[in-house]
Amino acid sequence: MPMTSKNMAADYDALNIIIDKANVCFNQANTFFGHEFIPATCNLKQRGKAAGTAHLQKNELRFNHFMYQQNPDEFVSTVVPHEVAHIIVYQIYGDTVRPHGKEWQAVMQKVYGIRPSRTHSFDVPPQKQPYEYHCSCQKHHFSKRRHTRAQQGVEYVCRGCRSTLQFVDLNK
């Protein structure tokens, strides 16, 4: 979809709402812990199945605009604190704890009053051009990126039958 000023304005508004919520979350953590955490930068670069990602070493939060658009209120009230909690835990413990471990769960519950959950209920964007692969037990669909890697020599193995996945060229 070509970018229009209307699209850019909507993206800008969404990003500002997300940034505002992230700042609220950081302030809540500052108050709870009596410590000044370094706020992360936020953007709408997340793609694919994840609603958001915390890039810990970069102190960056990426959010999925496609999923935000489905239910902005739910997204802001669940996904933003989820990702900020990762940054908070990283700034306290470093990379010595599990991503959704007891420390992260405690931040979600005690600081934000949210039941910790690793998953979201947002629809994922449709694959633009799925590539079909097969193994001994089933069909697999690859994204363009994964297909390109497979064509460059990366070998993918089925988790079920442990056989190598083979490309099925549907154009032949």
From TrEMBL:
InterPro entries, per the entry: SprT-like_domain
Keywords: Hydrolase, Metalloprotease, Protease
Lineage, highest ranks first: Bacteria, Pseudomonadati, Pseudomonadota, Gammaproteobacteria, Oceanospirillales
Spans traversing the lipid bilayer: none
A Pfam family reported for this protein in Swiss-Prot or TrEMBL: SprT-like
Keyword Protease: yes
NCBIfam families registered for this protein in UniProt: PRK04860.1
Source taxon at top rank: Bacteria
Domain SprT-like stretches: 20-168
An example molecular function term from Gene Ontology annotations: metallopeptidase activity
Entry protein name: SprT family zinc-dependent metalloprotease
Source organism (scientific name): Marinomonas primoryensis
Keyword Transport: no
